[in-house]
Each structure stands twice: as C-alpha cells, then as structure tokens.
Amino acid sequence: MRSDLRDGEIYDARLEMPGRDEPDFEETWQPVRVADHSKASLVAPIAPPVRRRERLRPVSILKTPSGQTVVE
C-alpha cells in the first residue's frame, strides 16, 4: 500500500489478511527491523510543498434520505 497527497493511493486488497477485521483475530506479527542502509541515497521530493492556497466555504450542507451528507 502506498498513499500520497498528490499521487493518490495504491491499495491491493489481495494482500489483506482474512479475518483481520474480527475482534478475535490473531496473527504472528514480525517485529520491526531497523534498516541498515546509507542515508546518502535519500533525496528531497521534486514536487513543491503542499500549501493552502484558498479556503472554500460550503454554500449548504444537506442530508440525503439515505443518511449521507452532501456539501455544496
């Protein structure tokens, strides 16, 4: 899975562990490992930083008959 504000999200449901959403789910989790690599390979992002440019205010907020909220 990968998630990025500008590039969107990549999610592969085939990698889900069946039953993970159940309260009695037990799985053998692997402990965290510290990666041993050179920090010299790290690079700054090529995209400009994300900044607020405009604030939009809703004209109205509606509830549909099915209970969903719609913001105009």
Provide keyphrases for this structure.
mainly beta, 72 residues, two-stranded antiparallel sheet, two-stranded antiparallel ribbon
Low-confidence stretches: none
Identify the strand order in the major beta sheet: 1-2
Instruction: Report on the biggest sheet.
Output: 2 strands, antiparallel
The number of E-state strands comes to 4
The H/E string reads EEEE
Approximate helicity band:
under 10%
Q: Whole-Å distance between the termini?
A: 31 Å
Count of DSSP-assigned helices: 0
The radius of gyration over CA amounts to 21 Å
The rough form would be described as: flat
Verbal overview:
- The protein is flat and about 50 Å long.
- The protein is mostly beta strands and 72 residues long.
- It is built from no helices and four strands.
- The strands form two sheets. A two-stranded antiparallel sheet has the order 1-2. The chain has a two-stranded antiparallel ribbon with strand order 3-4.
- Strand 1 (2-4) and strand 2 form a beta hairpin.
